[in-house]
Structures are given as structure tokens and as C-alpha cells.
Amino acid sequence: MAEKRPIKTRLVGKEDIFKLLALGECTRLPVLLVGDPGVAKTQTLLDYAAAKYNYSRDEVAKNTFVIELDEGTKTSEIKGRVNMKALLEDKEYKLDAPIADAEFILINEVDKGTSGVRNTLLSIMREKAIFYGDSVKKCKWQVMAGSCNVIPDDELENPFWDRFVLTQNVERVGVDMMHGLWKDSKIHEVTVTVPTQAEIAGTVLDKGMMKKLLNVIYGAISDRSAFHVPLIAKAIKLVYDLDDTETILKTCEMIAPSRLAEIASKLESKRENNLRSSVGSAQGVLEGGNDAYSQLFVRQIAEELKDARNMKQYNKLSDDLLKELVIAVNSSEIEYDQKQAIYGTIKTVFEETAVTDLVDDVLNSL
Questions:
Q1: Which residue, 240, 267, 294, sits at the end of a domain?
Q2: Residue 360: predicted pLDDT
């Protein structure tokens, strides 16, 4: 049965990253976190690991391996070293390789690794093993994550990056959210779903949608990644609690983001596409400097979402896009008073307690 794992954290806005780590754990596929320095990539993994071990410091220390690479990082720092005490005192040849025994691994600045370091990481990701000549040491990782600020343009075709099948950007929290953190950085709880292998295998997705997905993304991914698509999609459906259409879109976003618009156009109706497009352009409009037009634009979107919400087939989409609209307002580089006015406009349009509560819940979670 799927595990509902509560994660205690001071981090805000990292729910999707926790879900990505859960996805990596249940699929046993490496994940890559891409984002600016200081966006809590390391702390997110540590908080996730701590929840697994019921916040036992000793267990977390024993079962996690975190390293920051640079041009001077030696292969031995990944592979491990000979235990000289065992060799000299017990005449026993023993290798200490903390990365092999760790269940949670994070390789920071993974783009800075030398070819030797990368080759070692490849064997850890691919075969879950470290090779020492004729001997092999198996790795125990349940979550293997890499992080970098950006994938270098001249390395986009490098097969090394293709090993990180699951990739997600880690965004900054935003000015308003940072103001909130100054006032109150209390610990809160985020619950993630970690499904079992049997549950993933037993999950069914619409075959026609899956075929459309493969046709759209095949030219943008390797056969290696394409092979994992059914596993990833089924796990996404369970971890993120999505319907089939949302699952296909989320899968595309994660493994072939450049093809997201194309697959969306093939799966969604014209109305759904228009709604999603309007919400997607909201932040740009808000930052355009025309306050009166911004208010009008947001009011029109809110009215369209309200109309859609009254139709059963669009009910969930409307709520999801409403959340995205609120997040877009929060993320935009406009004054605090302007944001409050726009939130007020959204609530006024709906005039429904359930929806205004939804807006407040989103704002409180940011």
C-alpha cells in the first residue's frame, strides 16, 4: 500500500520538489534539480531523507551522501578509499565507499565533475554499482539526485545528462514569500505519496493518450528515456494524484518540456487550451506596467474560469488553473498593493466561499 509520508520542513514552495524525490524513490530513477545557488536544493533532499528515518540524526547521517563537485574533485572521493586500518592491522583489503552504502545521494554542481568522476557516477546511476577492476560493490541508493545551476549549452547533447531521466527546475521563492518568511519561518508539514512497485505496475493509463505522448516526445528524447515513459507516467499519476490527461501533460513537462504545448494541443479541447494559455500569459501581462489593463485581463480570466467551473468536465481544470493564476500573481514583479487588489478582483468574480477559501489556501501555502 502506498506510503503517506509527512515531511517536516521550514522550506516553502518546495512541495513539487518533494514529490519529484518521491517519484525518484518509487521508480528508482535518478533525478536532476536545476536552479540558482541558494534555492535549498540540498536542504530539500535532507528534509526528505529525515522524514524517511523519523528524524533520527544518526540514521540520516548514516544513510545520506552529499558532495559538491568542482574541477579538482578526485574519483576516489566518489569511489572511496582503502581502509588502511583494516589493511595494516587485520591484513584485510577493505574499501570504504560511503556513497555505496547511502540510501539518499545528492551530487551538487554535477556539471563540474571531470570525465573520470562522471564515469563513476554513470555506473552508480545505471548499474547501481561501483567497479574496482575485477571487484564490484553494489549501491543501495533509493534516491539519487544531482544538482546544478544550469545544464551547459555545449553539453545538451552529452549522454551523461540523459541518465537523469527526471528533471525539474527549482525556483526562487519570490519577494512576497520571502517577506512572509522574515515574519514567520515555522516548521510546517508536507505529505507526499510514495506508491509501491505493485501499485505502479497495476496502474492503467489511456492507451490512445500514451501513444500520442510517445509520438510527440520521441524526437526530443533518447530511446533510453522513452523506455521508461510508461513507468514514469504511472508513477506520476499516483504521486501527484492526477487524471490521465493531467498525467500525460506532467510526464511531458518532466522529460520533454519543449514538446508540452504540442501534446497539450492534441489532448485538450480548444477551450481548455485557451484557458491554459490565458493563465500562462498572466505574469507577463501583470509585469507590463499597465495596471488598469492587468486588472481587466485578470477579471476576464477569472470570469472564464468561473464559467468553466460550472461544467463538470472542466471543474478540476478550473480549480487547478485558478491556483496557477494566484501563483502567477504572487510570482510577478509588481507592488504588494497591486497584488492584493488583483487577489480581491479574483475573489469578487467568484463570490463563492469554497473558491475564495481555495485562493486563501493557495496564498497561505506560498
A1: 267
A2: 75
